[in-house]
Design a protein that fits this description.
This protein has 155 residues and is mainly alpha-helical. 57% of the residues lie in helices and 10% in strands. It has a two-stranded antiparallel ribbon. Strand 1 and strand 2 form a beta hairpin.
């Protein structure tokens, strides 16, 4: 790196829950660049979650995000002509980023009519410890456990 690393811009909290993580999640969810549309879809998804589970949708979302958050991951490192998968702890900022990306990715892959339906179903599944995003976390942890023998090659 030649230049100084760019400063992270502070995020504005969302209007309904006053939470910066909601803004971050909506920014990841956004494709077309129309934030208000995506924000309303996210709020619709949380309303659907609260209708289905009879609990607070925001709390269920936070629980789902927490369930999907990985603690360890594997990183490739080339040593002496061979490539090893080396388990390493995930930085706190990256943990949140990965969990949000996985939740969004697997909700998009679900079948449903609108993104709000898909997202609601994935949030409910993740909060119960099911679904694609939770499975991805489990697979990541399993891979790190399998490659624990190479942990002395720390990056």
């Amino acid at each position: 790196m030649r230049k100084a690393q760019a400063k992270k811009l502070p995020l504005a909290p969302d209007p309904k829950f006053n939470d910066k993580n909601v803004t971050r999640f909506v920014n990841c969810l956004m494709w077309g660049g129309n934030k208000t549309v995506v924000l309303s879809a996210f709020y619709d998804a949380l309303d659907k979650v609260s209708k289905i589970t009879n609990e607070d949708g925001y709390e269920i979302w936070k629980k789902a995000l927490n369930n999907v958050t990985p603690a360890v991951e594997v990183r490739s490192r080339r040593i002496g002509g061979a490539t090893f998968q080396i388990p390493s702890e995930v930085r706190p900022d990256r943990k949140i980023s990965l969990s949000m990306k996985w939740l969004i990715r697997f909700s998009r892959e679900r079948n449903g009519k609108t993104i709000a339906d898909k997202l609601a179903n994935e949030i409910i599944a993740a909060s119960k410890g099911e679904g694609g995003a939770f499975k991805k976390k489990e697979d990541t942890h399993r891979m790190a456990e399998a490659n624990k023998a190479f942990s002395h090659f720390k990056i």
